[in-house]
Amino acid sequence: MRKETQKLLVLALLGLVSVNLAAQQKAKKDTIKSIDEVVVTALGIKRQDKSLGYVATKVNGEEFTKTQNNNWAQALEGKVAGLKIQTAGAGPLGTSKITLRGAISMNLDQNGALIVVDGVPLGGTSTSNGSDAYAAGSGGDVPVDFGNNFNSINPDDIESVTVLQGASAAALYGSRGAGGAIMITTKSGKTKNGKVNVTFNSSSSFDSVLKWPDYQHEYGQGTLTKNTAGQFYYSYGASADGVSTGGTSSAFGPKFDGQYYFQYDPTIEAQSKSRQLWRSYDNNVKDFWQTGTTYSNTLGIEASNQNTAFRTSLTYQKNEWMMPNTGFDRFNYALSVDHQLNPKLKMVAKFAFNSTKSDNLPATGYNNQSISYFMIFQNPNVDLAWYKPIWKQGQYQTAQIHPFSSFIDNPYLIAYEMLNGLDKKFITGNVTATYNFSKHFDVMLRSGLELTNEERTTKRPWNSANYAQGYYREQYIKNSEYNTDLLFTYKNKFGKLNYNISAGGNIRANEYVQNDYKAIGLRVAGIYELNNAVSLQPIVPIPKDKEMNSVYGLVNLSYNNIWFVDVTARNDWSSALPKANRSYFYPSVTTSLILSDVLKLKSRLFNYWKLRGSWSQVGNDTDPYSLRQFFNPSDFPGGAETNNLLLNANLKPEMNTNIEAGMDFGFFNNRLNYTITAYQNNTKDQIIPVQTIAESGYTQRIINAGEVRNRGVEMMLTATPVKSKDFSWNLSANWSLNRNKILSLPAEFQGEPYTMFSVGGVLFYNAVVGGSLGDMYGYKLQRAPDGQVIYGADGLTAKSTEVEYVGNAYAKWRIGLQNTFKYKNFAVSFSIDGQYGGRAYSQSHHKMSEQGKLTNTLMGRENPNGMIVGQGVVQNADGSFSPNTKEVLLTSYYADYYRRANIETNSFDTSFVKLREATITYYFPKDLVKSLKMTDLSLSVFGRNLWMWTKFPLFDPEAATLNNGSITPGAEVGQLPTARTVGIQLNVKF
């Protein structure tokens, strides 16, 4: 290419970075992004991006394969403005919820985006094991992350993902599109020159724990007990030194200073015969965790000719997670056939099969069966190796080794005996037929299915804290969803006006059933069969079937390829609503205007300016069987019990109204593109449960009430600051802000807060008019007017009698930045994202602080007699304040200051910055590749979660709790560690 005159341009990109941009004067060959880029919109309809009156962000398929996530969705984090991936930190399958533009519903489970694969929505049904995250002292079980359907999608099969960020973009999907939609297009097999292509991808990755709590290793087990000489001491069991101090879980014992005490001796499983060195085992929690591994191999074959495109792929993935004896095996098979039968009829068939198996998935939460519980209670002076035999000598399968407390199960018992098995088969498929009656008129018929068959087993051995005689459970879950769409389309033009008119309908049916069998107690230890049950408890299955019939229409108008207007309308009939209200209608209108064409702004500096706006209404129904009362099966075989929830036979649909406006700009022949969007989203007549008087015989009732508003701003910038023959630099940045406000609540509350849900009985998510969804309430410290903490006459903090606002679970704003550098045969890319604001309560922090396990409890340890004076004031009888001078024991002080109910001292800012992804790729020279009879060959080194900055003191500021089947933001209750991943990947193409 001949040399061109170059200009040096300095651009300030969102105030984040400054770059030197060599801008070529020759426009056509230097255009980076085309304004005519095609994206997939609702119903799988392909549109030019410039014609859309809403935001549709496209992410190419290679983003989902370059770092090989166990869950493909996590690769979207930080790459799309307004998008948040919320996971529960609960194990390798990484169930996640995608939220776009904040929470819109008081029902926590109704805020996720719709996932659509090749035009067919996924049901998204996720079944829990019925356990809450906080269940300390209540027996029973804790939640297990069994994964959901959309994280089973094979990232190697994804061609692209288009994120429809608002309700206007997803209006044609009706009820399920109120929170936006994620449009996944899978690979179809179209190749160049009709050749057969074979691809092989192989990756190996290794996981380690990203961040640990700040454990203290200066003091050991104990509670400030003194011997007859007046010295703090330790004794496992009563000894010559004094009474036993080895039964506590607290670490307020003696300092590690070379002394000797009677301690636990694993060789005799009792107190040592002589005094042993008092020492810290600094890695007695960390060494339980191992380096996790994931191996993945994919083989794909694709071919095409003039009439047919074909692709098939096989993927096998084996994961051994960081917790010993946990992980999964995953097998994916995909088939795609695209065939033009004749000039008028085209058929497309897609099929995908997923099998996920695991002998053991980790439990999460705060209860004996969770490894998190052990990590909280482990003491610094205890050697992890003492637990490894699991069973006491001569008492295999009947008596575990847990020398310090019968409430704390052996960690290796949890890993190797308390097993949570999974065998899941997941099938999706669709067939699409398109018939062109003429060049103006066609009809499309698409039928899709989603089938899930899941078997789960839960094994609990004898002698566990919650099941003295063992426990066994089998769950069988079958879920099927069928979607059929019929769409007629007429397109033509009249002068400069082009118009497309479409009308059609959808039939959706969902069938769900769960069979559950529990063996309460095992006759023979270690035999996990239902016929070995002391008491067999089958649970009568409750059906959850649902049907939805819909008709819809859309009109697309384009004037001179400059002004675009889309109008849609849809009417749904839902079986989950009463006959009088089950029909509901909602429209939308969107428009975009290419101002740069109108104003003829076609300079090299400023070449594209688009103005867009939209308005929509979207209805939403509710869960099936919410209208009339029925009996639930009870734990007593053959028995039934009334439902504590008073159902409502007069429910009407929620209604969501969305408006948005924005502009898109292109500079330097689209080397620099900038998008800004402002939106408002109102949801009213929400379907929510509220408390009712006990005399009614019910605890809650379902009503329509309340209105929630979201307002926000999203910005996205993409640029190619440098592009030459040997070197290029591409970057993208996004920033988003969302403000949520509760406009109204049920009249029954009369100014009182409505508790939407709670965690552990101490953290309350209260809805208050003028407040926001995600507002967290709980007890706080009482403070004097100057901010000092108030103490009582007992030397402990003064107690509040009312819960107060503590913070909000959601960030104030989020940001993402991606860079890709290419130099000759090398490519380097990295992705950084973060958030500002947000708050999370940590149950683990409470318990470890109460027990003296963290460094924040070292203050005052050297004080005489183990006493401490809390820093603050006491209130005098006349209302004035004076300094607190009352001494209290350290154990009492920390147990009170960090008590579970004190949400203030156990909740923290969740601002963070993460190096989310990084990749270095080498593309082998073309001559070498050709000599090996290949077309492409590359080798990559990659990493995820390589670095993090945060003030959050526990494992991960992106904290959430798997509470039964819901992912609850802003709460950490027995969270498992987050993984830092490094790996290597080989890509071969023949």
From TrEMBL:
Q: How is the protein disposed in the membrane?
A: Multi-pass membrane protein
Segments crossing the lipid bilayer: none
User: Tell me, what is an example of a GO biological process annotation in this record?
Assistant: siderophore transmembrane transport
Pfam families per UniProt: Plug, TonB_dep_Rec_b-barrel
**Chain ranges of the TonB-dependent receptor plug domain:** 55-181
- InterPro entries recorded: Beta-barrel_TonB, Beta-barrel_TonB_sf, Plug_dom, Plug_dom_sf, TonB-dep_OMP_SusC/RagA, TonB-dep_OMP_SusC/RagA_CS, TonB-dep_rcpt-like
* Record keywords, A-Z: Cell outer membrane, Membrane, Receptor, Signal, TonB box, Transmembrane, Transmembrane beta strand, Transport
- Please give the GO cellular component terms listed in this UniProt entry: cell outer membrane
The secretion signal range is: 1-22
GO MF annotation terms: siderophore uptake transmembrane transporter activity
Q: Which residues form the TonB-dependent receptor-like beta-barrel domain?
A: 421-828
- UniProt-annotated location(s): Cell outer membrane
The entry's family comment says:
Belongs to the TonB-dependent receptor family.
Q: Which NCBIfam families match?
A: OMP_RagA_SusC, SusC_RagA_signa
Record-given protein name: Membrane protein
Origin organism is Chryseobacterium taiwanense
Where is the organism placed in the taxonomic lineage, from the top?
Bacteria, Pseudomonadati, Bacteroidota, Flavobacteriia, Flavobacteriales
